[in-house]
UniProtKB/TrEMBL annotation:
Classification of source organism: Bacteria, Pseudomonadati, Pseudomonadota, Alphaproteobacteria, Rhodobacterales
Keyword list, A-Z: Coiled coil, Membrane, Transmembrane, Transmembrane helix
Transmembrane residue ranges: 6-28
Coiled coil feature spans: 42-101
Protein name (record): Membrane-bound metallopeptidase
Natural source organism: Tritonibacter litoralis
């Protein structure tokens, strides 16, 4: 085999390798191509996810607001209870003083 034949055989081998690589690349891209319906499904799912996140945020805000209202109501009820207990204690003491005064 002389020099010219060697160059031609090497060129043919390189061309065949290039052709096989290009064909393999084409096959991979052909089978992994994203279909339009898949893109539409992904778009729909992303919109639904966004709506669900907004609903979740609204629910969290509502629960925080409601919790704040309930804590305020509990604080007011607790203060009213303390005031009532203080009034009852004073009334009992006054009644006891009146009983002791009448007993004398």
């Amino acid at each position: 085999m002389n020099r010219t034949e060697f160059i031609i055989v090497t060129a043919i081998i390189l061309f065949v390798a290039f052709s096989l690589g290009w064909f393999a690349n084409w096959l991979v891209h052909r089978f992994t191509r994203v279909k339009q319906s898949d893109v539409a499904d992904l778009d729909r799912m992303s919109q639904e996810l966004h709506a669900a996140e907004e609903t979740r945020d609204q629910a969290i805000n509502y629960l925080q607001q409601r919790e704040s209202e309930l804590v305020n109501q509990l604080t007011q009820t607790d203060a009213e209870l303390r005031a009532a207990m203080d009034g009852l204690r004073d009334a009992r003491r006054e009644a006891e003083e009146l009983r002791s005064h009448l007993g004398r």
